[in-house]
Amino acid sequence: MAGASRNKEEMTFWEHLDEFRKVIFRSAIVLILLMVVVFVNKNFVFETIIFAPRSSDFILYRWMESLALLAGIPSLGPKPFMLDLQNIELAAQFFTHISVSFSVAFVIATPFILYQIWLFVRPALYPSEKKSVVGAFGWCSLLFFLGVLVGYFFVFPLTINFLGSYQVSELVKNQITLQSYIHMFTWLVIIMGIVFEMPVLLRVLSRMGIISREMLKKYRKHAILILLVLAAIITPSGDAFTLFIVALPLYLLYEISILVCYSKSAEEDETSKA
User: Fold this and answer.
1) Same-domain status, 227 and 151
2) In terms of Cα–Cα distance, which of 241, 243, 223, 225 is closest to 233?
3) Is there a domain that residue 87 lies in?
């Protein structure tokens, strides 16, 4: 970065703007290149990754079946199923291909984009602040990918397994459209990556003195209600089963946030030392 060797205070507003433009440009170039790579590898992306959870041969279902056999209760294992997808619009498959290519490229490019943001803000930080910010960016990338994996291997498969096989009557057959499947896939996977940033966000807020570990413990019941509302907003289908599947990781993240947040006594000690 051109301004990395200069103090942020010595740069004018237009120089800041020029540096930020470079960050956007580099991020856009990487995003476009990754999008092209994903686009040309259509069969692998769709058949091996995106469409894998629609079959009972998916790894999560095989794990669940193995656990049911180990427990001696085979009936608890998932039943064989296969979701058949259909397309009802002429250009839908082409535009779906483009949108999925962008979404996958965005997920892959996230660490690079965060790194570019770090290069932009680094000159304005003191040496002691740089260490904390580097750790924050690292944890943000790690938690985002962890959330994406949880969304892909856990939340999305269980959601489509329930909704795809649910029937109000045997007279009504489920005919899942490609757009419906892709919309739920993209939404659940990416949004789980975003909500997994909760521990980092709450730790930063506790560092700023806005919240504390004791506060999170005190208002745990209120937080659970808020998390349920958030899960309801995240859940595209609105059914109770998907709501529970999404709310469970959110609650676990809240408990982790309590562990990583600063306590009120620790903040007072740091203030007194300062």
Assistant:
1) no
2) 243
3) yes
pLDDT of residue 236: 59
- pLDDT confidence of residue 266: 52
Record the pTM: 0.79
**Domain count within the chain:** 2
Neighbour tally for 58: CB within 10 Å: 19
**Range of 53-67, 90-104, 129-143 with top mean pLDDT:** 90-104
Confidence of residue 10 (pLDDT cuts 50, 70, 90): low
Residue 1 is predicted with a pLDDT of 45
Whether 33 and 145 share a structural domain: yes
> Nearest 5°: CA angle at 139, between 145 and 158?
30
103 in any annotated domain: yes
The burial of 70, by beta-carbon neighbours within 10 Å (0-12 exposed, 13-18 middle, 19 or more buried), is given as exposed
Structural domain containing residue 133: 2-168
My answer on whether 59 and 124 are in the same domain is: yes
Give the separation between CA 113 and CA 102, rounded to whole angstroms.
14
